[in-house]
């Protein structure tokens, strides 16, 4: 038996010794591409505000007007916390995603846990990509369903697991994947996955946290990776998206058929047993989604991604195969990643240093995220600072050997 204070101190010391101890950076307001850290202005390449909507004056004004409806929803959605503005947001999400209906959740984490647990349980199987977001993994583990994983984006490995699940019994199979991987920026091969789901009678659930707003199809330009892969409501029946990334706000949604939304309203415990979204957030999100449709923000983001990749390639930086706003540079060693991110901060750039257990051991990385608000000059500045820092690392390694 260990006393709680000693238990806590021992685990914290272990974390520090492993160089894995995490702490916050405290920012002083300033949304957009500039962050104020310890009184210094840094150009942030670390936020998920891909379209710059968190700082948009019309979103902020709509949110302020929304606050006049009350600071909070005062109850869960099914009691008396569901206002007309929530319904308006759900209808807008359904329109943008090309689905019949949508349902709001307090966060993406809650949406993933709630949806998986509502759809599968003991006797069923949930199949997941090994690099899925923690909220999908936790949802799957909590559900009591058999939990099977497959090598990241490997369709043969996925088929092995689907076959195994189907041969084992008559339970339902849910395949849950990220549409865009949050630490790698690559996309799931969704069209082929939908074909496999049809073959093995499995249900496809796609987490669009990083796809919604940032990519789509001609018909549904903001619907995410599912639309980009050409999938409709039949082939990708369960779409989860967050409002804290490209929409620049907070909260999440599930979009799908009317029957799916009706079912989740009855059975998703993280929807039922929690206070409704504050109406001001719903009001800000409605305006943000309208602005997505009205302004060429996504085109600007796509142009910035192309510019970043082209300039980084010229400098010979180790780019990953990512067409999304997430452009990681995998450096491997945790200490190197920390040193390079500190050097970048000293040069005026804020970039996330991502280490295990968020990513697999030996794949520590800088997670560079692009926004429609970044200028080409800011991107050039980051890349030059990065190039110098990496050059210094190389020289230091040369001297040490
Ligand atoms: N899924 C993915 C892929 C994510 O990256 C995140 C956020 N980091 C979530 C779900 C959780 O969303 P939220 O922040 O709204 O809880």
From TrEMBL:
Residues engaged in binding substrate: 22, 133, 358
**SUPFAM superfamilies assigned to the protein according to its UniProt record, in alphabetical order:** PLP-dependent transferases
**UniProt KW keywords:** Acyltransferase, Biotin biosynthesis, Pyridoxal phosphate, Transferase
- Pathway listed for it? Cofactor biosynthesis; biotin biosynthesis
Q: Which InterPro entries does this UniProt record tie to the protein? A: Aminotransferase_I/II_large, AON_synthase_class-II, AONS_Archaea/Proteobacteria, AONS_Proteobacteria, PyrdxlP-dep_Trfase, PyrdxlP-dep_Trfase_major, PyrdxlP-dep_Trfase_small
Domain (Aminotransferase class I/classII large) spans: 41-386
**Pfam families attached here?**
Aminotran_1_2
User: Known EC number(s)?
Assistant: 2.3.1.47
Q: Which reaction does it catalyse?
A: 6-carboxyhexanoyl-[ACP] + L-alanine + H(+) = (8S)-8-amino-7-oxononanoate + holo-[ACP] + CO2
One GO term under biological process is: biotin biosynthetic process
The entry's pyridoxal 5'-phosphate-binding residues are 108-109, 182, 210, 242
Q: What does this protein do?
A: Catalyzes the decarboxylative condensation of pimeloyl-[acyl-carrier protein] and L-alanine to produce 8-amino-7-oxononanoate (AON), [acyl-carrier protein], and carbon dioxide.
Protein name as it appears in the record: 8-amino-7-oxononanoate synthase
Give the organism the record lists: Microbulbifer hydrolyticus
